[in-house]
């Protein structure tokens, strides 16, 4: 790997912002800012149980994953038309481009929308058009990952997959999200096997609040290529070895973990420990509108709180490209730009 040159500590935040990166763990419904929730509610003649944007934002006081999910699903209920999905994704992509995100693989939760009568093609077509336009107009590469809600049944996941089949060329993979505890990966073994046969990439949330056993079964039963979160892996030495040896990426989300109290403080986050153990960790925003920051905020805050270095920064950005489902040609271009950015920061020392 490229030998990372010494970079003065006071230039590290600027470097974190400037470096090209991939975002691999972003729930598009979690990018809906309160302002856009109100705009869409007005446009769709819906009344929200909050009088103002400020009142809605002040309801964002979570203490764990479930307390967050309850309000996150309520926020997503203002999305009804293809243009709503387009506008949401477009706003995220414009914001991500500002953070020098070169590539993103966006999660979406179709069951949240189909549950209240929105057709899956409305969801996928709106999101996909936003990705296409962003590539042309913002120079950002964006693809879609369909997530199954694990608190719902296997049958519901199969039904969702069936509905998505005519649009399968518009997604690159599938994931598994929502309430983790009590909903182990095994519940979706058959759905993931079918997705694998369809040639889709596979990821799953595991080890956010759930135990290392859920990470093992995501790997060995679902056969996923990346683990979303995965921070609980540190409690299982054999699992740490497996993740390092197989270069299984973890899409870590520091501000999410702080807000949902996975760690008592950001300073207690184990990102540095994961990197030290040789794991392919990455930094991501999860649900930026709810957790107090986009990807660069996640980088700058976790670096400031835990004392990570320029070398760690390079590794995290490099890991994000390597762990992506983009082509090798695209990866080489982004990795070259990454190296150039680091070299630029030494020269101006
Ligand atoms: C999520 Cl932080 C988190 N965990 C699990 N599922 C999710 N869906 C949206 N954000
Ligand atoms: Zn997530």
From TrEMBL:
MF terms (GO), sorted A to Z:
adenine deaminase activity; zinc ion binding
Q: Name one GO cellular component term.
A: cytosol
Organism taxonomic ancestry: Bacteria, Pseudomonadati, Pseudomonadota, Betaproteobacteria, Burkholderiales
Q: In the UniProt record, does the keyword Metal-binding occur? A: yes
For the site labelled Important for catalytic activity, the residues are 229
Source species, please? Acidovorax delafieldii 2AN
Q: What is this protein called?
A: Adenine deaminase
Classification via InterPro entries: A_deaminase_dom, ADE, Ado/ade_deaminase, Metal_Hydrolase
Q: Write the Enzyme Commission number(s) for this entry.
A: 3.5.4.2
- Per UniProt, the enzyme's principal EC class comes to hydrolase
Q: How is the cofactor bound?
A: Binds 1 zinc ion per subunit.
Supply the alphabetized keyword list. Hydrolase, Metal-binding, Nucleotide metabolism, Zinc
Residue ranges constituting the Adenosine deaminase domain according to the UniProt record = 20-333
Q: Which GO terms describe its biological process?
A: adenine catabolic process; hypoxanthine salvage; nucleotide metabolic process
Catalyzed reactions per annotation: adenine + H2O + H(+) = hypoxanthine + NH4(+)
């Amino acid at each position: 790997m490229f030998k990372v040159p010494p970079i003065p500590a006071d230039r590290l935040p600027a470097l974190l912002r400037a470096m090209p990166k991939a975002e691999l763990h972003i729930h598009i419904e979690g990018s809906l800012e309160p302002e856009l929730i109100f705009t869409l509610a007005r446009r769709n003649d819906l009344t929200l149980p909050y009088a103002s944007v400020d009142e809605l934002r002040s309801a964002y006081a979570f203490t764990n994953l479930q307390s967050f999910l309850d309000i996150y699903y309520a926020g997503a209920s203002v999305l009804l038309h293809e243009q709503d999905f387009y506008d949401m994704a477009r706003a995220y992509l414009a914001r991500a481009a500002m953070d020098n995100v070169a590539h993103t693989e966006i999660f979406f939760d179709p069951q949240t929308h189909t549950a209240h009568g929105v057709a899956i093609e409305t969801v996928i077509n709106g999101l996909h058009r936003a990705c296409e336009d962003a590539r042309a107009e913002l120079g950002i590469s964006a693809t879609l990952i369909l997530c199954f809600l694990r608190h719902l049944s296997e049958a519901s996941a199969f039904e969702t997959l069936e509905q998505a089949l005519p649009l399968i060329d518009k997604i690159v993979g599938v994931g598994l999200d929502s309430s983790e505890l009590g909903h182990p990966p095994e519940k979706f073994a058959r759905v993931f096997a079918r997705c694998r046969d369809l040639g889709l990439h596979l990821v799953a949330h595991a080890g956010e609040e759930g135990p290392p056993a859920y990470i093992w079964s995501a790997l060995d039963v679902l056969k996923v290529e990346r683990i979303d979160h995965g921070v609980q892996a540190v409690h299982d030495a054999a699992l740490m070895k497996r993740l390092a040896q197989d270069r299984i990426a973890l899409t870590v989300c520091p501000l999410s973990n702080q807000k949902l109290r996975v760690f008592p403080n950001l300073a207690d986050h184990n990102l540095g420990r994961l990197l030290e153990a040789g794991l392919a960790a990455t930094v991501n925003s999860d649900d930026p509108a709810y957790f107090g920051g986009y990807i660069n905020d996640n980088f700058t805050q976790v670096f400031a709180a835990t004392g990570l270095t320029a070398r760690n920064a390079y590794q995290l950005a490099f890991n994000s490209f390597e762990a992506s489902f983009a082509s090798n040609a695209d990866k080489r271009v982004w990795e070259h730009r990454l190296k150039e950015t680091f070299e630029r920061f030494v020269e101006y020392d």
